[in-house]
């Protein structure tokens, strides 16, 4: 029955497979045949969906019966059991006790259960309720311990339902809880699980109760306390663990005992290799569940290394076909279904941490126990490697004796512990317990993993973690699905029992797994302890019996206790890699230094010196030097000196040399703008962490690593960017010393410079300081926890400086971290908010090139792409012969670190290659093909260019002492070979500058046209074109950039044993490159000497053999692919072949001698080719920019500049094989394996069980991944930055810019500084209107001046004599009608419409002005001083303001006006309230006689609409802090939004009927309210004995766009009285108002105003300090004198002109102070433009011309949704010539306008007269008018008044009234028909609907 389950074995099937496997292993002498477990369990998961629901219960019963048989003491058959009948009347329901109380776990899991001391809650299984557990309380003395022992016989329990206690027999208890058993009740059988409380406090199923014998089931409870994280693996799956299945009864009861035993053992073999495509395909794949992990002490520090290179194995057993699905899918540990079966895991290593860091707070697993094991002497000498012992499960014995020859590691122990913790993640979400993988299964999977590894592979902890994860997931697929988000159940519930592997079976199964691996894995089984196994292993090692064995697995298994295990790495290669990987970077350096200092490397050196056919290499070099000294030096000097000779002769010179100058590329600009955008978003946020408005300029400091080259490189960029001059930080004539102030090397002297920076930031609060931390991943060491106390001072410097309290708290410092490798700054404790990260943008989006650049970037992904099939020339390569020699020497010199061996081998290769190129052909066999290619092209490169340009080869040697050794050796070989003038060897030490020979300095100076005698190159970029080997030392690159002449990047010596992602990517970042996109197509014959195929070269020994161009060709121009596509990152080899004429090819190749000839033969090549080219007609040129040669000429590659070629193609990178495999292989997500490495040395994974990164992840998603899954170690500077569950661990002013290496981040952040500075200046600047006054020429030309230029105040008597200037001079009224007075009627110029209609605001002239300290501000301004003024005072809550109604009657309106005041608590002292009800009574007014320096007497009213954000209502600075009363006048519907933005301002809310009114209504109500308040205050203060005339009668009415105020200071100290000089300066509004308020007899003036500012103001305008004319924008109004003069409440435009004319005609004084002026800011929104005229019928915005604003009454014209008055004013402005045709441009005959001023457009003049008695009007005698305008006439206009005026014949009349009835009455009342002729069709109305009360007008002609 049970055999139908997926994964179950029939005995015959097992035997068949077993025999086949054994037979295959006997025939095989190579690799593992097809794995036996794969064959057995391949289809297991695929059958899962065919399970039948009904069979589940049956199988559980079988399982229980089987368990009973296994667990019972004897093998006797079960005794039949008679159930005792229950007592009468008791409950017999399953799941309830006899008292009727529910005992089911699901029912009572959330109830509180009293558990007596010493008792535990356990779950009992009832056969009738297979899906339920019954809760019982049992005395724990009668339960077993974790090892299944020490349980007392008998039973003691309580019923948790009814509370009955004292059950002493399990039989009695089972009856009480209604188990209804048919067999003898046994506690071992029915008490199954411990019950535990989960995180929510609910009772859930815990671990299995470990009764004796139950260890067969593999149900040990997990000892891990780590709550880890669960995730779903990607859809391509790999290993699975045990599939759910039950053990089988013996298949054949009558079979012999041996057979039966085998079958029984087989029952427990797990499905270790089920690869499910069915379950993990499509919809049934469980969703990822990324639970937030709780990191505990047991969290495993990460282990490095990956599975790499999915290429096929070099040898494969014939029974294991690569096409075989079982071999490729089942055991593809790369998690990649397409990859082949072998895992080429050369790469990877375990960890770079010392043991202490790895173990952490866990009790150290290294502590031994039991009997000690002696490590034999001479172990290393005999074995040639130190064995690495990985402690596994259980106890580990003490080691004694020669313990220096072994290494013990806890990594595997930690991995096992962590893999036990995964199921805990489910328990806290309420799931029933899911058991972890048993220890036996863990070990078995480990053995199987080791069996799979090839001889050149290294085991990786990460791989094991993934294997355990998959095994566990697939074992518990159904439970996991049940508790993940709802996924449709495609198959029934699978039982959760895992097929167990018993400890007794484990050694046998491990041995079976290892049986076919050709002794690669050896299993040692011991009976008592690991000590005997270790002793045996050491004995076998000493006897040489483990010579083929790489891994020894020692198992101590016993039925009575948990297993003990350890794994010993005995393979020489594996042991070396793993042991070296355990060294930290500093330990690595120490070890190498120690070996060099103590002379241990001398044996290696002497070994190499003998590697020569003629004995010692040095002797051979000396001999060569003596023989060839004269000849070579002369030929070489001729070659080197050639460029100057060629120059002098005027022949070909290489013109392709260019050093990149500073220019901003589109990418960099885009990144700079993104940075600026983030800065603005910080400033705009409500947290107010950055007040950009308070900064006037910026300063900065760039922090760079302590590399002299990086420092100089940054200075170079800074100098050439011009940023210091642009920011105004420095003046012209910049010196290098000044530039150095802005760049700081993070070395011992950094603290002094940083202290100055901090002092500057404190002393200049209005300067924004940007602290740029470049190469920010470099030193992240915590200043408090230095792992290496003995290291230099600079360790932890970044933490000490950039994380100091002053930087964190300074409100004017923004920190910008810039790095190519941000991963270590993206942990759970990072200071940087994810919202403050800026990632370099992608150049392509959906195939569209977003940024058009003339260069293409080649980075890591492009290098990897070049290795894919279809790319013939991979840019990433490894050197197999070099690796083979290193491996061989590693076995020969086991005590030497591999870095030492690798370095010496590579030095040897370079030395031999140089000798081979110079003619010692016998040395070719002592170098590798790759090194020979590099050396050949380096030496020949300078000879290909007429100017001597060459290639750069970077030789990366991390260890500085090893680099010095390499430099010394290569330098010596170069001297002996007389190549010292051919190429330079440069030792690049991070702590010092660049030193190169004088000869090469001179060459660089010629190429770069430098005349400075003392110039020396200070950056690698300045070595452009220099043929050289740059030995690049230092543990990590520190941001140094390399020139475009870089051709080879030799990284074969990088430290490949302890790689982390950052280290690996920054090494490869050295080769990152920009390639020119332009294609230069030239017809060329390709020569092979420059970049030939070295293998063919080295084999060309026959002198007569022709070297054809087709055999080895290289490109002279960049491939098409580089510019056209990022997918094809490198050129197809075929595409490089130039089409060459066959005849020409033969001709040239005949002149090419064999490459292996002596050096002097090379000179012949050159001369031959020059002679060939000189015979062709055009002059020879190698410049890429020169004109293309004619068809029959050839550009020979021998004479083409190799540097030019190098700049058009990326460099070739050579890597160690380990690293190459890591880089070029991918994991199941499609990402390179390197991306799944630990990101940085000082961080660790938060959990072993984390999801793989996805190929589709963006940079932002990758950041979030690391933020969730990595935590800093104690040595990391972010370690202490935690604040549980809160967001304030992020620093608000910290940003992170990340982008690929060498892509231009420096240029981007310098550009950011530039645009940030411009923005700050822009924030401190404002666009103000700058227009000359209009109609100046119509002013009265008078020599009479009423005041002296220096007078401070007007003299009242003199002022009364001044005539009123009717003309409007304000430039905003340029398109308004001219107002005529008698003086101006004679000769007005033709004022034709010079500009705009609706675009009045946008076309006006403005000037950008710097805001002064006395400016008015909008809501975006924040500063410390303003906080209280703006309402950010803690004393006043924002909501603390009250609404007060204020009503007064106004006779003209005929009704009571009700206004509302919103008064903040802080402003209530300005008002008077009634005492009982706190009703608003009045607004306090001062006395005329009051004098105070800190008080402004006049209340300021500012009407505003649509400008809640942009209105300039913050007058704090303008008033210079003086106390003042400021009231915003707002419409009712805008009240809430204004209150939100200006919580501390008093609001006057207009009645709702004015919601659609214009500014006239606001002015009207302000004035009427103020007069009413004046009366109230006079009455109130009269009671206090104050005279009414002593109350201050003025108010200020100000526009909401007045930004600054200026005063003109006149100096009259000249000789003559009329001489004066004047200066203008910005002053506070307080000063101006107090000055005006102090005017003598001030109450006699009705209106006081000031000029509008203009930059073009001339002396004539201010010679007279006071004018009697129109005032606008900002005025002081005497509400007492103007009591009877009202603003027109209906007006939208020109209401101030209209009011000025009324005031003047009433005989009141209007004074303009010409020495004061106001600047008005251009605000593009709100104000007048908030009125939009649109159709009332349709909502669609349709342009409506002003001609449509009026229509005939009763017509079907489209009505408009706009106030009638607005339509009228706009119509008259643009189309009044239809009503007044005679008036058009007829300025001598204006239109007579009675009692009002309406703008009839600039082409019509008007004459204003008032009908009021005793009013002042101009003399109209002699004036003939061309029209008459009567607008809403009141009773003062009478017929006799009109008859005084004379009109032209044909003049027109326009009468405007509220309705048609009034229109007729007005015509009759004024007797208009006597002189004017009317027609019916001359009646019009505004285009309003009836309910909108249109205005009506009638036109007529003068008779």
Q: Approximately how much helix is present in the residues?
A: 25-40%
Average predicted local confidence, pLDDT: 77
Helical/strand content category: alpha/beta
Please provide the count of β strands: 57
Give the overall silhouette: globular
Number of helices: 54
Roughly what fraction of the amino acids lie in strands? 15-25%
Radius of gyration: 48 Å
Low-confidence stretches: 1-12, 27-80, 214-367, 485-498, 633-651, 786-791, 1079-1199, 1385-1402
Largest sheet, in brief, is: 12 strands, mixed
Commentary on this structure:
With 1903 residues, this protein is of the alpha/beta class. Helix content is 29%, strand content 16%. The protein is built from 54 helices and 57 strands. The strands form 14 sheets. Strands 35, 36, 39, 40, 41, 42, 43, 44, 45, 46, 47 and 48 form a twelve-stranded mixed beta sheet that branches. Strands 50-56-57-55-54-52-53 form a seven-stranded mixed beta sheet. A six-stranded parallel beta sheet has the order 14-13-15-16-32-17, with helices on both faces. Helix 13 runs parallel beside helix 16. The N terminus is likely disordered.
Question: Can you give keywords for this protein?
Answer:
1903 residues, twelve-stranded mixed sheet, 57 strands, 29% helix, 16% strand, globular
Sum this structure up briefly.
This protein is of the alpha/beta class and 1903 residues long. The chain contains 54 helices and 57 strands. The strands form 14 sheets. Strands 35, 36, 39, 40, 41, 42, 43, 44, 45, 46, 47 and 48 form a 12-stranded mixed beta sheet that branches. Strands 50-56-57-55-54-52-53 form a 7-stranded mixed beta sheet. A 6-stranded parallel beta sheet has the order 14-13-15-16-32-17, sandwiched between helices.
């Amino acid at each position: 029955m049970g055999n139908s389950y997926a994964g179950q074995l029939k005995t015959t099937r097992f035997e068949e497979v077993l025999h086949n496997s054994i037979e295959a292993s006997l025939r095989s002498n190579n690799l593992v045949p097809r794995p036996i477990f794969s064959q057995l369990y391949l289809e297991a998961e695929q059958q899962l969906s065919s399970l039948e629901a009904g069979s589940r219960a049956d199988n559980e019963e079988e399982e229980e019966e089987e368990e009973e048989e296994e667990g019972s003491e004897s093998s006797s058959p079960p005794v039949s059991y008679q159930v005792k009948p229950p007592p009468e009347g008791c409950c017999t329901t399953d799941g309830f006790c006899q008292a009727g109380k529910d005992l089911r776990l699901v029912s009572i899991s959330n109830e509180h259960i009293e558990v007596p001391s010493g008792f535990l809650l356990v779950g009992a299984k009832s056969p009738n309720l297979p899906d339920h557990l019954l809760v019982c309380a049992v005395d724990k003395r009668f339960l077993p311990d974790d090892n299944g022992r020490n349980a007392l016989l008998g039973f003691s329990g309580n019923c948790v339902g009814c509370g009955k206690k004292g059950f002493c027999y399990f039989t009695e208890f089972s009856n009480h809880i209604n188990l209804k058993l048919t067999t003898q009740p046994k506690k071992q059988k029915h008490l199954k699980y411990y019950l535990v409380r989960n995180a929510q406090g609910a009772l859930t199923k815990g671990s299995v109760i470990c009764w004796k014998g139950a260890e067969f089931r593999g149900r040990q409870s997990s000892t891990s306390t780590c709550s880890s994280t669960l995730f779903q693996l990607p859809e391509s799956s790999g290993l699975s663990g045990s599939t759910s299945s039950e053990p089988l009864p013996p298949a054949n009861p009558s079979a012999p005992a041996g057979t039966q035993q085998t079958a029984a053992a087989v029952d427990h073999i797990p499905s270790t290799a089920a690869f499910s495509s069915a379950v993990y395909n499509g919809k049934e794949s469980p969703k990822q569940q990324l639970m937030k992990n709780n990191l505990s002490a047991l969290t495993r520090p990460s282990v490095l290394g990956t599975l790499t290179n999915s290429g096929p194995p070099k040898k494969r057993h014939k029974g294991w076909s690569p096409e075989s699905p079982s071999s490729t899918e089942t055991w593809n540990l790369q998690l990649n279904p397409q990859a082949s079966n072998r895992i080429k895991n050369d790469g990877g290593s375990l960890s770079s941490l010392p043991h202490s860091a790895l173990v952490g707070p866990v009790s150290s697993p290294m502590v031994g126990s039991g009997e000690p094991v002696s490590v034999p002497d001479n172990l290393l000498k005999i074995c040639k490697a130190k064995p690495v012992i990985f402690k596994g499960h259980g106890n580990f014995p003490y080691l004694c004796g020669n313990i220096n020859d072994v290494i013990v590691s806890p990594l595997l122990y930690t991995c096992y512990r962590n893999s036990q913790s995964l199921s805990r993640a489910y328990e806290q979400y309420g799931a029933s317990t899911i058991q972890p993988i048993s220890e036996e299964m863990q070990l078995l999977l480990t053995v199987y993993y080791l069996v799979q590894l090839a001889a050149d592979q290294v085991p990786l902890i990460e791989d094991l973690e993934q294997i355990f994860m998959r095994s566990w997931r697939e074992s518990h697929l159904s439970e996991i699905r049940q508790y993940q988000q709802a996924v449709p159940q495609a198959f029934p519930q699978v039982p959760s029992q895992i097929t167990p592997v018993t400890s007794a079976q484990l050694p046998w199964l491990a041995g079976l797994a290892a049986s076919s691996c050709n002794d690669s894995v050896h299993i040692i089984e011991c009976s008592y302890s690991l000590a005997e196994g270790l002793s045996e292993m050491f004995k076998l090692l000493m006897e040489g019996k483990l010579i083929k064995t790489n891994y020894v697995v020692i198992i101590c298994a016993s039925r009575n206790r948990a297993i003990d295990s350890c794994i010993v790495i005995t393979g020489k290669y594996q042991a070396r890699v793993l042991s070296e990987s355990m060294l930290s970077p500093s330990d690595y350096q120490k070890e190498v230094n120690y070996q060099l200092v103590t002379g241990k490397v001398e044996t290696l050196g002497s070994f190499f010196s003998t590697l020569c056919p003629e004995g010692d290499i040095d002797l051979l070099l000396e001999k060569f030097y003596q023989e060839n000294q004269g000849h070579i030096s002369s030929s070489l000097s001729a070659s080197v000196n050639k460029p100057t000779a060629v120059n002098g002769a005027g022949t070909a010179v290489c013109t392709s040399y260019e050093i990149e100058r500073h220019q901003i590329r589109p990418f960099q600009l885009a990144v700079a703008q993104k940075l600026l955008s983030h800065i603005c978003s910080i400033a705009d946020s409500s947290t107010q962490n950055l007040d950009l408005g308070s900064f006037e300029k910026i300063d900065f400091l760039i922090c760079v690593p302590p590399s002299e080259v990086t420092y100089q490189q940054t200075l170079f960029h800074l100098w050439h960017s011009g940023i210091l001059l642009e920011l105004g930080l420095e003046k012209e004539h910049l010196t290098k010393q000044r530039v150095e102030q802005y760049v700081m090397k993070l070395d011992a002297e950094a603290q002094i410079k940083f202290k100055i920076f901090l002092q500057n930031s404190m002393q200049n609060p209005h300067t924004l300081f940007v602290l740029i931390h470049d190469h920010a991943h470099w030193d992240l060491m915590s200043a408090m926890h230095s792992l290496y106390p003995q290291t230099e001072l600079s360790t932890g410097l970044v933490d000490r400086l950039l994380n100091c309290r002053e930087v964190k708290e300074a409100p004017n410092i923004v920190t910008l971290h810039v790095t190519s490798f941000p991963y270590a700054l993206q942990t759970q404790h990072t200071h940087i908010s994810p919202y403050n990260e800026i990632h370099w943008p992608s150049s392509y989006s959906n195939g569209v090139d977003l940024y058009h650049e003339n260069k293409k970037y080649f980075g890591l992904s492009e290098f990897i792409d070049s290795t894919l099939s279809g790319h013939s020339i991979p840019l990433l390569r490894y050197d197999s012969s070099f690796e083979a020699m290193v491996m061989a020497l590693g076995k020969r010199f086991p005590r030497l670190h591999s870095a030492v061996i690798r370095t010496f081998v590579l030095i040897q290769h370079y030395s031999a290659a140089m000798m081979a190129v110079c003619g010692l052909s016998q040395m070719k066999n002592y170098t590798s093909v790759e090194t020979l290619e590099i050396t050949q092209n380096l030496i020949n490169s300078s000879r290909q260019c007429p100017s001597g340009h060459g290639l750069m080869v970077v030789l990366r040697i991390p260890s500085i002492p090893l680099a010095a050794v390499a430099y010394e050796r290569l330098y010596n070989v170069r001297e002996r070979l007389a190549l010292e003038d051919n190429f330079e060897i440069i030792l690049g030490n991070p702590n010092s500058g660049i030193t190169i020979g004088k000869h090469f300095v001179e060459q660089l100076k010629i190429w770069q046209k430098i005349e400075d005698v003392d110039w020396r190159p200070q950056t690698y970029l300045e070595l452009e074109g220099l043929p050289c080997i740059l030995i690049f030392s230092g543990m990590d690159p520190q941001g140094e950039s390399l020139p475009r002449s870089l051709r080879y990047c030799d990284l074969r010596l990088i430290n490949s044993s302890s790689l982390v992602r950052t280290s690996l990517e920054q090494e490869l970042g050295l080769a990152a490159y920009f390639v020119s996109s332009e294609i230069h197509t030239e017809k060329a014959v390709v020569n092979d000497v420059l970049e030939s195929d070295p293998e063919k070269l080295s084999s060309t020994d026959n002198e007569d053999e022709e070297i054809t161009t087709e055999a080895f060709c290289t490109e002279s121009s960049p491939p098409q692919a580089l510019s056209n596509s990022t997918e094809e990152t490198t050129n197809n080899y075929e595409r490089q072949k130039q089409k060459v004429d066959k005849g020409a090819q033969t001709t040239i190749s005949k002149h090419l001698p064999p490459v292996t000839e002596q050096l002097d033969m090379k000179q012949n090549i050159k001369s031959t080719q020059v002679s060939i080219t000189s015979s062709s007609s055009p002059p020879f040129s190698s410049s890429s920019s020169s004109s293309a040669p004619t068809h029959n000429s050839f550009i020979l590659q021998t004479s083409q500049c190799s540097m030019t070629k190098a700049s058009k193609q990326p460099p070739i990178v050579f890597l160690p094989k380990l690293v190459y495999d890591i880089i070029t292989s991918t994991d199941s997500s499609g990402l390179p394996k390197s991306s799944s490495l630990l990101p940085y040395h000082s961080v660790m994974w938060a959990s072993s069980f984390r999801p793989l990164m996805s190929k589709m992840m963006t940079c932002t998603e990758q950041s979030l991944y690391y933020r969730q899954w990595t935590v800093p170690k104690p040595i990391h500077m972010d370690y202490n930055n935690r604040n549980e569950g809160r967001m304030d661990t992020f620093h608000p002013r910290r940003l992170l810019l990340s982008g690929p290496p060498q892509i231009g981040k420096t240029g981007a952040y310098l550009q950011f500084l530039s645009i940030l500075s411009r923005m700050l200046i822009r924030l401190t600047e404002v666009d103000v209107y700058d227009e000359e006054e209009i109609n100046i020429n119509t002013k009265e030309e008078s020599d009479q001046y009423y005041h002296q230029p220096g007078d401070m105040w007007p003299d009242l008597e003199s002022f009364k004599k001044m005539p009123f200037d009717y003309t409007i001079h304000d430039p905003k009224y340029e398109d308004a009608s001219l107002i005529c007075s008698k003086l101006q009627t004679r000769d007005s110029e033709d004022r034709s419409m010079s500009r705009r209609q609706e675009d009045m605001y946008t076309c006006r002239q403005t000037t950008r002005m710097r805001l002064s300290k006395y400016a008015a501000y909008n809501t975006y301004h924040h500063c410390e001083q303003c906080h209280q003024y703006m309402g950010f005072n803690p004393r006043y809550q924002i909501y603390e303001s009250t609404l007060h109604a204020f009503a007064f009657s106004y006779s003209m309106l005929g009704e009571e006006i009700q206004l509302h005041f919103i008064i903040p608590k802080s402003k209530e002292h300005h008002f008077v309230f009634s005492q009982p009800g706190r009703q608003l009574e009045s607004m306090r007014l001062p006395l005329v006689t009051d004098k105070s320096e800190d008080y402004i007497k006049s209340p300021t009213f500012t009407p505003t609409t649509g400008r809640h954000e942009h209105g300039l209502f913050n007058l704090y600075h303008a008033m210079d802090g003086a106390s003042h009363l400021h009231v915003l006048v707002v419409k009712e519907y805008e009240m809430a939004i204004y209150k939100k933005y200006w919580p501390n301002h008093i609001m006057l809310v207009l009645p709702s009927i004015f919601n659609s009114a214009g500014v006239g209504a606001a002015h009207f109500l302000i004035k009427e309210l103020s007069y009413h308040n004046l009366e109230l205050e006079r009455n109130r203060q009269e009671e206090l004995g104050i005279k009414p005339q002593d109350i201050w009668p003025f108010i200020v009415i100000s526009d909401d766009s007045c930004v600054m105020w200026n005063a003109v200071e006149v100096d009259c100290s000249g000789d003559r009285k009329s001489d004066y000089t004047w200066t203008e300066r910005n002053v506070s509004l307080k000063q101006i108002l107090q000055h005006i308020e102090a005017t003598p007899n001030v109450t006699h003036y009705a209106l006081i105003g000031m000029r509008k500012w203009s930059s073009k103001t001339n002396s004539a305008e201010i010679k007279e300090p006071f004018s009697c004319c129109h005032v606008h924008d900002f005025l002081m109004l005497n509400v007492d004198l103007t009591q009877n003069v009202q603003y027109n409440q209906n007006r939208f435009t020109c209401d101030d002109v209209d009011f000025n004319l009324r005031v003047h005609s009433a005989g009141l004084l209007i004074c303009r102070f010409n020495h004061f002026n106001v600047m008005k800011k251009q605000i593009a929104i709100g104000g007048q433009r908030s009125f939009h005229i649109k159709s009332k019928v349709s909502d669609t915005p349709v342009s409506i011309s002003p001609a449509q604003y009026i229509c005939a009454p009763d017509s079907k014209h489209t009505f408009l949704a706009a106030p009638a008055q607005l339509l009228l004013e706009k119509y008259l402005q643009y189309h009044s010539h239809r009503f007044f045709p005679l008036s058009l441009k007829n300025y001598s005959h204006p239109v007579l306008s009675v009692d009002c001023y309406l703008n009839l457009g600039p082409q019509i003049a008007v004459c204003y007269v008032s009908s009021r008695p005793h009013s002042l009007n101009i003399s109209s005698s002699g004036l003939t008018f061309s029209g008459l305008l009567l607008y809403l006439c009141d009773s003062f206009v009478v017929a006799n008044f009109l008859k005084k005026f004379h009109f032209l014949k044909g003049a027109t009349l326009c009468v405007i009234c509220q309705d048609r009835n009034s229109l007729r009455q007005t015509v009759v009342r004024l007797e208009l028909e006597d002189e004017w002729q009317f027609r019916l069709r001359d009646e019009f109305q505004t285009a309003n609907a009836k309910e909108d009360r249109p205005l009506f007008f009638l036109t007529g002609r003068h008779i």
